[in-house]
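Hello forum,

I keep getting stuck at the same step: I have a sequence, I want structure tokens, and every attempt I make locally crashes halfway through. Rather than fight my setup again tonight, could one of you with a working pipeline run this one for me? It's a single chain of 581 residues.
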Amino acid sequence: MKKKKQVVSSSVQKRKMNRRGLGSALHAMVKAEGGRKDIEFEDAPETHSSLMKDVPITERAGYPAKRAKGSVDPANWVTNGGKKVIVDFGRHAWLPDEWGQGVKATNTCWRSAAGGAGGTYTVMVSPDGKVFYHRKDAEKYDGKAFSLKRGFDGQVRKAKLQAKEQVQLARMQIKEISSSSSDIGTDSAKSLFQILSPAEQKCIAKPSDFHFCVVSARRATQLEGIRDIFTVQSQLAEVGVTPTWYVDAESLKDYKALGLKAVIGGKLTPSRNKALEDAKRLGKVCVQLSDDISAIEYRQGKRAKDKSDDACNAAHKNTKRYIVSPLTAAQFILAKMRGMPQEKRAKLGGVYMLGSCSRAMASDEFVHQNFILGDFFVVDLGSKTRFDENMTLKEDYDFCCSHIRAHGSVMRCNRMTLNVKHYSNSGGACSNRDKKGEKERKNIAILKSKWPRAFFKHPKRQNEVVMRWPADDDAEGKHQKAKDSKPKSRSQKATKAAVKKSQLKSSSKSKGLPAGKAVLSFSKKASVEYLVKRHKKISGRSVEAVLGKLTYTGNHGEEKTYGVADLRYDLASGYLVAKKR
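Reply #2:
Ran it on my machine without issues. Output:
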């Protein structure tokens, strides 16, 4: 018969899972089994208790990362007084890999008070089974100082365990449950595929048809980064997928040390392009995902009655919720893409850009000229579109626009969302940002120079943009210029010339632009031929001699006039430099 707990706080009703959950569950169990009547403690949620008991001690963070020859079996750990020591889910970062960490029940002492806390103690256990309560005593017995380097493998085990918890937490939040008697898995692919039309179901690709790529960097040496890495890796392994991690040269060794299939990709956009080229070489569909995804969700339900928040929230609440694996998500997106009419068939597909699709419940389930988030996207075979390697941020916006221009559309699932950290994680693309937002603004300038009629300043978020593909398909503004070139009356021409002259004069003096007499010189070669020709025509000439006067042939063969946006782009990309006379 299960022994009743002596004093249990009533404040624990339906607590949700958190990262400290398994350790808390273990301490609660030890306190309960300790039999002390003088302490008060919170009972652990059913999810934690069940998951805690299911995890073998060999997979817990407190188990020695390296068992020394002849060491005491952690299942038999006991204190000098004979108290049982249970392998812990936590682990000190500096604890040597050969040592272990455990939890034991404490005895009543003169400091104990009725209704007080306590009841457990975290201890360190040496390879020969000696139990220590303080680091100083343990170091003295070991003969060497404890350090982060000596405890690295133990931290990797801890990160893997926390990754499992992180995935379970995300899945519980999707299902809106506070406890579960077992692990929550993904919903079956078959159940999600029923949403597809019969024609689209015939387009479902095999798992072997995909090349899964994770673009990452500088995240394999810190506990938080390692935990996120295994959060993604474990979800892919769960469905039999081994991804390729594209990292910078300096990080390659660290990623491989974690047992990952890693290759050198370079910085952000070169890594993305290498992944696309590798998929092309393998004859596979390219799937790129970020290194901090803890869950993918799909919501099926009726469209909201109107665009009000109340209507959208009500529709969102009444949806059927699917927990989707990365493989199933990729298969679903690709099937939707391949099911589109041939003349407008998208080669790029992805998910809704926010963590909740509530606001999208008033719009179509699938849209074709909207932003595709870089955290998870699918590129079908036959696409020649690549990332602009001059961009260090906002590269997914430009990639999306390039796909719409090349193929006429993209395919975004407005009901599929990601659970990601995105802005707050360490390393990766986040390290490309700066506190002042200068890099954000530089990349936004590049976007606006390439797609001036597709991007607008975000009304609420600083250094962010809103993408709206124009209804007339003229994102570059080339037809807009053609409209402006229609014959006008003499007075209209005079007025326009005066305004243009005034604008050019003020623009050349604006912040970030060189003076009109400054000479522009070639600095580095662009990867696009029309830009190379443009820069050759400009090099050696002054700003005032080219701005609003020099004409060049654009990427699509159209004649353009060199303007302020072009100058900003060339300077920001480093193609040209300005020197004072």
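Residues 1-19, 112-117, 505-509 have pLDDT under 50 and may be disordered. If your local run keeps crashing, start a new thread with the error log.
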